[in-house]
UniProtKB/TrEMBL annotation:
It is found in: Cell envelope. GO terms for cellular component: cell envelope. Keywords: Signal. Its main location: other. InterPro entries: Peripla_BP_I (IPR028082), SBP_2_dom (IPR025997). GO terms for molecular function: carbohydrate binding. Residues 1-24 form the signal peptide. The keyword Signal applies. Residues 27-282 form the Periplasmic binding protein domain. This is Sugar ABC transporter substrate-binding protein. PANTHER family: D-ALLOSE-BINDING PERIPLASMIC PROTEIN-RELATED, GALACTOFURANOSE-BINDING PROTEIN YTFQ. It holds the Pfam family Peripla_BP_4. Belongs to the bacterial solute-binding protein 2 family.
Length: 315
């Protein structure tokens, strides 16, 4: 290639960066997998945001395995990326690889879940909602709907994930204030529809076909959608014989709500790329970054479900 062509290319590249004002950064993104509708939306949103900013995003899908995430982080470090986004599948086991990133001076931003580490300086910030608050809100809604008397079952998210641990904690913080609220059974459906259906089937079998059950608390909408199928196949009416509340506010839960099959969902924002990339930019500019960038969502009820479904499925 002639010298003129190379210099033209270099001018072109720098003009592209200047014109969009985007940072020509290379960012590694270790994503958990595609276990739920919400996870897929998060992936699509972060990829779109990276494209809009002219960021070269190296994407890795861990298929729900922590060892794959650790491998991906080590690969990003070896490539010398400018920053890393990590959606940690579970809370623990990250100290060593985060220390390697810190030693390589690569900022790590946690998205949508948290980690338990000995030294909080091992990551730049966490962009996530407050799962304990979500659990408290869900329990307050159920206690109000049932006048504080309900024998419920719980579909937990992925074992060891901060989302499952804290959504469980928050719910139980409030339930213990109501002596006639009783947890009949609680088990992980791993945040998937199939997991939610299988576990709900086992709950119904163990609970005399579900006749004595009052409600289902699902840590995400996908497990609630699976449970709805199981409840129908057992001859009961979901949303009526058993009240149901879940979290994420994916489009399909609004369809189910409009059909009368579920009763409430709490919104979880999937658009975490903007705040995550801004945090990396701020760190590189030597600006302070909060340790937790929180995004909290509202609770939705059947009265707006049809409109919400139309609006969200058109997006
Ligand atoms: C919560 C996120 C959870 C979602 C699920 O921030 O980690 O993981 O609620 C997803 O849909 O599987």
């Amino acid at each position: 290639m002639t010298r003129t062509k190379i210099s033209a290319l270099l001018v072109g590249a720098s003009l592209a960066v200047l014109s969009t004002g985007a940072s020509a950064l290379t960012i590694g993104f270790s994503q958990i997998g595609s276990e739920s509708g919400w996870r897929t939306s998060e992936t699509e949103s972060i990829k779109a945001e990276a494209k809009k900013r002219g960021i070269d995003l190296k994407f890795s899908d861990a298929q729900q395995k922590q060892e794959n995430q650790i491998k991906a982080l080590r690969s990003f470090i070896a490539q010398g990326v400018d920053g890393i986004l990590l959606a940690p599948v579970v809370e623990t086991g990250w100290d060593q690889v985060l220390k390697e990133a810190k030693d390589a001076k690569i900022p790590v931003v946690l998205v949508d879940r948290g980690v338990k580490v000995a030294d909080e300086s091992l990551y730049l910030t966490k962009v996530a909602s407050d799962f304990v608050e979500e659990g408290r809100l869900a329990a307050a809604w159920l206690a109000t709907r049932t006048s504080g008397k309900c024998r419920y079952v719980e579909l937990q998210g992925t074992v060891g994930s901060s989302a499952a641990i804290d959504r469980k904690k928050g719910f139980e913080d409030v339930v213990k204030l109501f002596p006639r609220m009783e947890q009949a059974r609680s088990q992980s459906g791993d945040f998937t529809r199939s997991g939610g259906k299988q576990v709900m089937e086992s709950f119904l079998k163990a609970e005399d076909g579900g006749k004595a059950l009052c409600a289902v608390y699902a840590h995400n909408d996908d497990m609630a959608l699976g449970a709805i199928q199981a409840i129908k196949e057992a001859g009961l009416k979901p949303g009526k014989d058993l009240s149901i509340i879940s979290i994420d506010a994916v489009p399909d839960i609004f369809k189910a709500m409009a059909d009368g099959d579920t009763n409430a969902t709490i919104e979880l924002n999937p658009h975490l790329g903007g705040p995550a990339f801004d945090a990396i930019d701020a760190a590189k500019a030597g600006k302070p970054v909060a340790k937790w960038i929180k995004a909290q969502g509202p609770l939705y009820l059947p009265d707006t479900a049809a409109d919400e479904y139309k609006r969200r499925s058109a997006q």
